[in-house]
Amino acid sequence: MRIHTSICDIFGIDYPIIQGAMAYIAGGRLAAAVSEAGGMGTIGSGNSPASWLQEEIRIAREITDKNFAVNLVLTSPYLQENLEVVLREKIPVVTTGAGNPGPFMATFKEAGIKVVPVVAAVALAKRLERLGADALVVEGMESGGHVGEMTTMCIVPMVVDEVSIPVIAAGGIADGRGVAAAFALGAEGAQLGTRFICAEEANVHTAYQEKVIRTRDRGTVICGSTTGHPVRAIQNAFTREYLKAENSGADQATLMKLGTGRYPLAVVQGDMEKGSIMAGQISGLVKKIQPAAEIVHEVMAEAVEILHKLGGMPC
Question: How far apart are CA 43 and CA 274, in angstroms?
Fold first, then answer.
């Protein structure tokens, strides 16, 4: 029994597993390892300049000749130059976050690029389908990093019922049980982020990975709700300081200053107290650091076993 859905055909991959686009962490080595294992790896450009993205694409292509995606953050100051890199390098799939990719849709389509926006609401999902999105990553608030207000269990079937393009479920998925649940909700694929933080190929400090593994069920908090840009991260001295300021009525400028540079402080320098350790609620299910290929194969084998017991899925 092998799970094969429309997502596999659209992306040219073996398994309907997408690796989340975690800025800094999801570089060329991780994306290539996931794609080489049969899933869809993704380079997370974040707010990095084009020189970084160009180098990570080079690294990925030295490792694999299989398809991988690039995630473009639409609020990045380097968006235009990163877009030019994507076009020049003929990247087959682009995922987008933090905005509406509508103004760029014609450019993507002319280049033959599959466009997969990340959404957290039904209205935006419907609008992006009309604009020409090929598929949607529908992400619940269980995820790490920037989050919406709906849970995966609720938002995924709501979007599935309102659009005709394939949906990829994200948020709170770290193993085969989560993938099987995603299919039960009507999704055609699943995106895993936090689980891949603990891949050997991830561009992240070991202290960050070990922190994710040690985090338990109530170990994450949401900061920044009053700013309109809420973020889920593992609790530490920084989140306590931030939430104290936020709950005391600090303005957006003060909160922005307080949060600036905290994510790379954790990812690159491994500061687990002053840095922002973005990770999902599913951290409690991540047990070890392991090769990305091992993660892909373990997750898919477990999902197949569960679905077989439940009576099967499209195979």
Answer: 26
Cα-based distances in Å from 263 to 82, 176, 231, 234, 271: 21, 29, 11, 11, 9
pLDDT of residue 309: 84
pLDDT at 314: 54
Low-confidence residues of the chain: pLDDT under 50:
none
State the pLDDT at residue 10: 93
Q: Which residues pair with 138 in a beta bridge?
A: 119, 169
Q: Are strands 167-170 and 145-146 parallel, antiparallel or unpaired?
A: unpaired
User: DSSP label at 174?
Assistant: -
Query: What DSSP line would sit under 22-64, residue for residue?
Result: -TTTS-HHHHHHHHHTTSBEEEE-TT--HHHHHHHHHHHHHH-
DSSP type of residue 91? -
Tell me the residue type at 160: V
Query: Do the strands 231-234 and 145-146 form a parallel or antiparallel pair, or are they unpaired?
Result: antiparallel
DSSP state for residue 164 in the 8-state scheme: S
pLDDT at 176: 94
Query: What's residue 99's pLDDT?
Result: 76
Nearest to 136 by CA among 155, 153, 150: 155
Question: How many Å apart are CA 48 and CA 82, to the nearest integer?
Answer: 9
187: helix, strand or coil: coil
Q: Say how far apart CA 139 and CA 273 lie, in whole Å.
A: 27
Secondary structure (H, E, C), 266-294: HHCCCCCCCCCCECCHHHHHCCCCECHHH
Phi-psi region of 209 (alpha: psi -120 to 50; beta: other; left: phi over 0): alpha
pLDDT at 62: 95
Q: Kindly state the tokens that stand for 227.
A: 């700013």
